[in-house]
Amino acid sequence: MKLRIAAPSPRQCAASRLYSTSPSQARLNVPIDYASHPLLHHTASSLNSSKSGYPLNSASKRQNLFQAINSALSHSLRTDERTLLFGEDVAFGGVFRCSMGLLTEFGSERVFNTPLSEQGIVGFAIGCAAQGMKPIAEIQFADYVYPAFDQLVNEAAKWRYREGGNDGNVGGLVVRIPCGSVGHGALYHSQSPEALFTHIPGLRVVMPRSPAQAKGLLLSSIACNDPVIFLEPKVLYRAAVEQVPLEAYELPLSSAEVVKEGKDLSIISYGQPLYLCSSAIGHAEKDFGIKVELIDLRTLYPWDRKTVIESVKKTGRALVVHESMINAGVGAEVAATIQESAFLHLEAPVQRLGGWATHMGLAFEKFIIPDVTRIYDAIKRTLKY
User: Fold this and answer.
1) Catalytic site residue 155?
2) How far apart (Å, rounded) are the C-alpha atoms in residues 172 and 221?
3) Which of 57, 132, 159, 225 is buried most, with the most CB atoms less than 10 Å from its CB?
4) Could you say which DSSP state residue 304 is in?
């Protein structure tokens, strides 16, 4: 007699997948509540009272990250006929909807799809920029940027240097790259490769943390006279929602923002981990009676050394946090610079906290990247040194 076992349904298969999740009944590692998070401007008055460089008393609208990016792209296309937007699936709106509606408004000669060739996308963009256009190229996921690495490093980054005194450059070139973990991206949809680009002179590397910041930094990147790698934390595309000024504005590149002032410890971070840092700071300040300063780098290369060093000289302690792998990461450069420029002011060794030096396994994603508990423990270690 043969036994017949029914195959599991797709719903049963989905339910049994070993995705990373937050632990139940946790005190620190709870899901981030973006709807009330203090790093986001939930009201127009909060936006207008901030010191982040946004236009004062401007009309604003609640937008998520992809809508704010869409607004910046739309403004650039509308006000400068040299602007082009292209990439894989960009014409129908892109997989994250950042270019939604732009083909209809600006036509297929300025907003268009490309073949699945990252090297070709960036090579074409470099040629356009060299001829005076303002190409905005989208790499669909950061995990697939590597075929374009040669074009970015050996062509885009070296263009002005190679031209000598001929004024040739590829300024206006922006390569938009969705990056980072979302909880279930596994090996090929979770990577944060920003440190690879921060090693290259001639490129600027930018990563926003919020919708309002993304709009201003993207418009500055498009106007910049250098090629810019613009990394967008894809977990924030829909999660982060805040008031965004309707008018066009630019936020300065290579200028860090002191998000929260403090006197006992400086935490330096960027992108999505800033929300984790903020949560860890809230618990640590309550538990240890301290005041922590939080700095958003915003531009990862060339980065704002002055703001960071001034902060560390004031607090005497520093912790650098990023999602990308700890080995040879942005934190290593920041930590080394602090050692060189503020050593005599330090009360404890500079701490680095990043993703573990391993590949992103589907079931282990939340164990690999920093979380609130790891940041809280790093704060505690630094204070008790």
Assistant:
1) no
2) 7
3) 159
4) -
